[in-house]
Amino acid sequence: MAMVTTDASATADAATKQPDATDKEYSSYNGASTAAGAHRARGSGGGGVVDSVVARWRREDMLDKSPLALHAAAAAFAFVALVLVASNQHGDWMQFDRYQEYRYLLAIAALAFVYSLAQALRHAHRMRGGADPASAPSGRIFDFVADQVVAYLLMSALSAATPITNRMRTAVVNNFTDATAAAISMAFLAFVALALAATLSGYKLSKQTYM
Fold first, then answer.
1. Backbone angle region of 129, left / alpha / beta, with phi > 0 → left and psi within -120 to 50 → alpha
2. Beta carbons of 70 and 194 less than 8 angstroms apart
3. Strand (E) positions, the chain?
4. I need a surface site. Which of 37, 90, 106, 146 has the fewest CB within 10 A?
């Protein structure tokens, strides 16, 4: 009877000790798995932060370079429109200066060219490390207002020159009407470039902090 009791006690002790080793192995494995999971989570989170910062830098760089590109494009389109109107002289009724609509288009194209070129040079100087003639808050307000004003004047000139050109082209199509139509198209592209520049200026102005 005593022998049976001793065997039962030994069996119970062995059963009690075996889970200890198993628990140690499980704890070690579980701890390693948890640590690896935490490391992967940290790595994934760090990569997301870096990607976010890089994307923000690229967006800010694009916003910084866009005004130069848009004003340069507006200056180029306005210059072509200016040349087309000023050289559109073919004698008799085919003289641009005989029509006040075309004289108005010529004046606004010249204004848009000078303004856009000045703005492009200003942004180029600033991007090369030079000091901006206007401070950041006042410069953004000026860009927003001036871009809108010049774009509106271009649209006004287009609205004046388009109807008379359409009437002429219904009667005759020649070098004079072709040149005026091309000038109107170039002035419209200059308007689009300045309208986009005004939109971008408004976005920057809305993000500006005054503290």
1. left
2. yes
3. none
4. 37
Report how far residue 7's alpha carbon sits from residue 17's, in angstroms, rounded to the nearest whole number.
Answer: 15
Could you tell me the pTM of the whole model? 0.69
Cα–Cα distance measured from residue 159 to residue 79, given in angstroms and rounded to the nearest whole number: 19
3-state secondary structure of 211: coil
Distance CA 122, CA 110 (A): 18
In tens digits, what is the pLDDT along the chain, a chain of 211 residues? Answer: 444 444 545 444 544 444 454 454 444 444 545 544 544 545 455 567 666 655 555 656 566 678 899 999 999 999 999 999 999 988 788 888 899 999 999 999 999 999 999 999 988 888 787 666 666 677 788 889 999 999 999 999 999 999 999 999 998 888 899 999 999 999 999 999 999 999 988 887 777 665 4
Tokens of 105: 């288009």
Tokens at 194, concatenated: 């300045």
Closest CA to 197 of 163, 154, 161, 168: 154
